[in-house]
Amino acid sequence: MNKTILITGSTDGIGKLAAIKLAKDGHEIYLHGRNAQKLDTVISEIKTQTNNPQIKGFVADFSDLAAVQQMAAQVNQEVSKIDVLINNAGIFKSPLATNKDGLDIRFVVNYFAPYVLTKALLPLLKKGNAPRLINLSSAAQAPVSPDALAGKIQIGAQAAYAQSKLALTMWSFQLAKQLKDITVIAVNPGSLLNTNMVREAYGKYWSSADKGGNIIYDLAVSDEYEGVKGKYFDNDKGEIKGVFGPAHSDAYDEAAIEELIRATDRVLS
Length: 269
Known about the structure:
Blueprint: E1 4-7, H1 13-24, E2 28-33, H2 36-50, E3 55-59, H3 65-78, E4 84-87, H4 105-126, E5 132-136, H5 146-149, H6 157-178, E6 183-188, H7 196-202, H8 209-221, E7 229-234, E8 243-245, H9 254-268
Parallel strand pairs: 1-2, 1-4, 2-3, 4-5, 5-6, 6-7
Antiparallel strand pairs: 7-8
Helix pairs in contact: 1-2, 1-8, 3-4, 4-6, 6-9
């Protein structure tokens, strides 16, 4: 059965690779990018490559939470349901450490933006057919500093990235308990994949970007993962492909999760 799938950060990297694979299967794909011209180019490219005319897109700069809210409103107007929401957009290195609100850009793009977008799109997900929410985490996870989250102190790019990814994982686990009929999976798509983000950050890579694109595809549509709730998929483990494994211990600490959500809502209010 064809699905309606929204993938954030899908004009390059593993998001784009997953979009191409899903489009080849005939699914209706909504891409997202921050640059309208690049988004249009990628939509045309995927339509041609896959012979699938059902490729559309939305533009938003995820470092601007007002833009995220505007995109969410547009999605709610234009899309009747979402079967799979893939929160893939992410950032590590950036010429700007903070956004216009003084928040660390990694926390904003990697955690606050998917938090805001997902909450706004839950009505569409609940209308979906066996809906799934896939949140792109990372092997890099570190305890979240409430002061760093709120922009009261500045920390390094590596620390902010790792904290933002643990925050995303903790929130994923909380959502999984709240959302009875939605599959929720946090995934490390693989460490040091050959993507622009990794090359800019480290200047080297370990694995093909296809490793990440393929696991996003699998988690989005494979029957194997239907009904999975609040688990962490580690694509660095396993022999043929990744396996479910332990996330950072804070992801299982209910008090820490409650504190994170309270701090998050304070920042967003």
